Amino acid sequence: MRSIKYILVVYDVNEKRINKVHKVLKKYIIWQQNSTFEGNVTQANIKRMIYELNKKINSKEDSILIYFFNSKTVIRKEVDGIEKWNVSSNFI
Amino acid sequence: MRSIKYILVVYDVNEKRINKVHKVLKKYIIWQQNSTFEGNVTQANIKRMIYELNKKINSKEDSILIYFFNSKTVIRKEVDGIEKWNVSSNFI
């Protein structure tokens, strides 16, 4: 059985690399707001995503935090302000 | 018994308001990297924090995502790149 995780990814990377990181993440999970993605991903795709991300960043300068959850049910999320993912033109 | 939640806060706010949001969050939880804070907080302090945040942001333009967890144990976290919270001078 394919094991699926729910993941949340937030990144703090040099401006020169933001687009590259954004493009990798967009292939696997869903944009929420600048520097923040979420979604269900298979273990295999998590490996691919991390491999690709590590090729794009400068590991001495950039930081990507990946939070893993067994399912979305353990997460309660509140939004203060606007839901940027619903206002797609705002993505960067 | 004081109920404690583990929370993760990520924000995408106008540059003019970043410092204000940062200063509120720093009172309650721990800076991880730009736009990202985490920590254990009482329910009462969560209310205070959200009240203060909403006074600082422009709710038509800014976005703050707050993720609530019953405990830190449901979270597995991986860092790719550097741990910015360990390199404190990098905080903005």
TrEMBL record, chains A, B:
Cofactor dependence: Mg(2+)
Protein name: CRISPR-associated endoribonuclease Cas2
Subunit description: Homodimer, forms a heterotetramer with a Cas1 homodimer.
Keyword line: Antiviral defense, Endonuclease, Hydrolase, Magnesium, Metal-binding, Nuclease
PANTHER family attached to this UniProt entry: CRISPR-ASSOCIATED ENDORIBONUCLEASE CAS2
GO terms assigned for molecular function: hydrolase activity; metal ion binding; RNA endonuclease activity
Binding residues annotated for Mg(2+), in chain numbering: 12
Task of the protein: CRISPR (clustered regularly interspaced short palindromic repeat), is an adaptive immune system that provides protection against mobile genetic elements (viruses, transposable elements and conjugative plasmids). CRISPR clusters contain sequences complementary to antecedent mobile elements and target invading nucleic acids. CRISPR clusters are transcribed and processed into CRISPR RNA (crRNA). Functions as a ssRNA-specific endoribonuclease. Involved in the integration of spacer DNA into the CRISPR cassette.
Enzyme Commission numbers on file: 3.1.-.-
UniProt GO BP: defense response to virus; maintenance of CRISPR repeat elements
Family membership noted in the UniProt record: Belongs to the CRISPR-associated endoribonuclease Cas2 protein family.
Superkingdom of source: Bacteria
Organism expressing this protein natively: Thermosipho melanesiensis (strain DSM 12029 / CIP 104789 / BI429)
